[in-house]
Design brief:
- By secondary structure, the chain is an alpha+beta fold.
- It has three domains: 1-35, no CATH class; 37-163, Pnp Oxidase, Chain A, CATH 2.30.110; 172-206.
- Helices cover 36% and strands 28% of the residues.
- The chain has helices at residues 12-21, 24-32, 42-50, 97-104, 134-140, 174-205, and strands at residues 53-59, 65-71, 78-79, 84-90, 107-114, 119-130, 149-163.
- Strands 2-1-5-6-7-4-3 form a seven-stranded antiparallel sheet.
- A hairpin with a 4-residue loop joins strand 5 (107-114) and strand 6 (119-130).
- The chain starts with 11 loop residues before the first helix and ends with a helix.
């Protein structure tokens, strides 16, 4: 049993390195003040369900790590309660590396990054694949999304932490940029029409 949620990442070896490099005292103070959260807050839930992309990290029985990308429309990641996140596992290349890893080792990690907000969230926990549960899969499936759900993945949160925006490049979704440009073009067209009317009125008075 970990004394603090951050102990899932701050192993004795990590803490020894923090001591050697001078950061252990500051992290110890954070731990004493409550440190990382072990439950899903309202703010975290809103962030998770707004994402269209996530990276799921697992490791096999030998400790070999693997990262898999998962994506979908906003809301494809669903917060089920204060401890669990679920999502439909869409049919893909059928390598099943993540599923095999989770059968041998259920420890997992979610990495979420919002480039527009320049915010990243790291979530440690345990995960499992749920097969042959059409009701759960249907519940997790985004409405009207063109993908075939094969099964479901449930992730139970152990700890999570939010990083600072340092070194995160700011990027925008193509759909958001297109909407902003369309609004700009509508505004320009309206102003051009207004200018044309003013010119016509001025010419009529001459």
């Amino acid at each position: 049993m970990n004394e603090f949620p951050s102990d899932v990442a701050f192993t004795p070896t990590v803490k020894a390195i923090q001591v050697r490099k001078g950061s252990r005292d500051s992290y110890a103070r954070v731990e004493q003040r409550g440190g990382w959260r072990a439950t899903i807050t309202a703010d975290l839930a809103a962030f998770v369900e707004a994402q269209t992309s996530v990276f799921l990290a697992t490791a096999n029985a030998e400790g070999q790590p693997y990262i898999q990308h998962r994506g979908g429309p906003a809301g494809f990641l669903k917060v089920l309660d204060e401890h669990r996140i679920g999502f439909a596992d869409f049919s893909g290349n059928r390598q099943f590396i993540t599923q095999g890893n989770l059968e041998d080792n259920d420890q997992a990690f979610l990495f979420l990054i919002d480039y527009m907000l320049r915010q990243r969230i790291k979530i440690w926990g345990r995960a499992g694949v749920v097969e042959n549960d059409p009701e759960l899969t249907a519940r997790l499936m985004p409405p009207d999304y063109k993908a075939r759900p094969e099964q479901a993945i449930l992730f139970t949160v152990t700890a999570w932490d939010a990083n600072c925006p340092q070194h995160i490049p700011q990027r925008f979704e193509a759909a958001d940029v297109a909407a902003a440009l369309a609004e700009r073009d509508r505004r320009i067209a309206g102003l051009e029409q207004e200018i044309a009317c003013l010119r016509e009125n001025a010419a009529a008075k001459v």
